[in-house]
Amino acid sequence: MGEMNTSAISANELVLIMASVATIGVIGGWVAQKLKLPDVVIYLILGVAFGPTFLNLVNMEAFPTANEIILTFGSAFILYEGGREVKLKILNEVKVSVGLLASLGVFITAGIVGLTAHYVFNLSIGPSFLLGATIASTDPAALIPVFKTVPIKNKLKQTVISESAFNDAFGAILFTSILTGLTMTQRVGILATSLELVFMILIGLLVGIGVALIAVGISSDKKYGIFHGYAPIISITVVVFAYEISERFGGSGYMAVFIAGLVYGNKKRFGLWVPDEDYISGVHFRENLATIARMSIFIVLGTHLNLNSLVEYGIGAIIVVLVLMFIARPIVVLICTTFDKKANWSKNEKLFMMWVRETGVIPAALSGIIVSTKVEGYEIISSVVFMTIIITLLVQASTTNIVAKKLDVLEK
C-alpha cells in the first residue's frame, strides 16, 4: 500500500512538472513576442529562474524518465520536422554544397571548437571534442521562422535550411559516437569508430526510408491509404518507430527520423499525396507539437544550468563561441563551397552563409543528455552550449534582415 501511495505521489508530481513546463513555455512565448526576441532565449532564462538555481519549482533531475522523454523525443521530432522542410528539387541544384557543409563542415567545426575548448579549459581531448560535436550543428527550428519573415533568395534559403537539417543529423550521430566512446570501459580504435559511424548512418537511412514509405502509403489518397484520416497521429508513430527500430539495429535514430521527414516532405516524388483536409490538419498538429518540443527542451536545459559554473566558465565559453562564429564557420563555408562549381556562389552569398549559423534545439537536447550522464566536463559543456545559444540567437538571428540587406541577398 505504501508503495502504491509513493507511486501515486510520484505520478502526480510528474504530471505537475509537465504542466509547469508547458505553462512556463506559454508565458515565455508571450514575453518573447512582446520583447521581439527569439522565444528560445526567453525559455532558457525562465528555465534558469524556475529551476533549482533560483525558485526550484521545476527540478527535472528528480524525474530522469521525463527528462529523457523530453530530450530524446523532442529532439527527434524537431529533426523529423527539419527533414520535411528540405525540398529535393532545389536540393539537387546545391547538393554538393549542402552535402559538404552538413558532413565535412560538422567535423571541421567539431575539431576547431574541440581544440579551442581543450586549450581554453584545459579539458581532456575526448570531452573537448564532445563539446565540439554538441554545438557543431545549426538549428532549422531557429532558421525557418526567421526566413518566413526575411525573403532570402530561394536557392540560398533552401541551402541554409537544408544544411541545418542535415547537419543536425550528422552532429547528433557524431555526438552519439563520441559519447559512447567516452562512456565505454573498453577503448575502441579510430577505424572501428569510423566503420561504426558509417554503419549507423546506413542503417538510419534504410530504416527512415522504409518506415516513411509505409506510413505515407497508408495515409495517402491511394486506395490502400485507409488511414488518411489519422495522418497527424501517424506522424508521431513515424518518429517513434523510425528512431527505435534504427537504434535497436545499431543505427542512428536521429538519422532515421530525419530521413523519414525528408521522404514525407517530398511524398509527391514517390507518387503519393495526403488529402488536403488531412494535410492541413496535420500541419497544424505538427506545428503545435514542435512548439511544445522546443519550449520543453530549452526550459529543461535552463533548469540544468548551474549558475556558479556559468560564472566560473563564462569568459572561456565566450572565447569558444567567438572562435565558432568568426573562425570555424568562415573556414567551413570557404572550404565546402569551393568544390561546388555548379552552384556558382557569389562572395556575398558566402558571407551570408558564414553569418547565419544559429545554435538551438539539437545542441540544447544533446547538452541535456550530457548533464544527465555526468561525463567528464559536463558543467563546462553545459555552460558553453548555453552561452552559444544565447549569443548566436541574440546576435545572428536578430540581425539576419540587416545583414541580408547589406549583402543584397534578398529576393527582388
Automatic annotation (TrEMBL):
Q: Matching InterPro entries, A to Z?
A: Cation/H_exchanger_TM (IPR006153), Na+/solute_symporter_sf (IPR038770)
Gene3D superfamilies (UniProt xref): 1.20.1530.20
One Pfam family matching this protein:
Na_H_Exchanger
Q: Might you name a Gene Ontology BP term for this protein?
A: proton transmembrane transport
Annotated membrane topology is:
Multi-pass membrane protein
Q: Which residues form the Cation/H+ exchanger transmembrane domain?
A: 26-405
Mind telling me which residue stretches traverse the membrane in this protein? 14-33, 40-57, 100-121, 127-147, 168-185, 197-218, 225-243, 313-339, 351-371, 377-397
> Membrane as a keyword?
yes
* Single GO MF descriptor: antiporter activity
Keywords assigned by UniProt, alphabetized: Antiport, Cell membrane, Ion transport, Membrane, Transmembrane, Transmembrane helix, Transport
Q: Where in the cell is it found?
A: Cell membrane
Which residues constitute the signal peptide according to the record? none
Spell out the PANTHER family in the cross-references.
NA(+)/H(+) ANTIPORTER 1, NA(+)_H(+) ANTIPORTER 2-RELATED
Recorded protein name is Sodium/hydrogen exchanger family protein
Organism encoding this protein: Romboutsia lituseburensis DSM 797
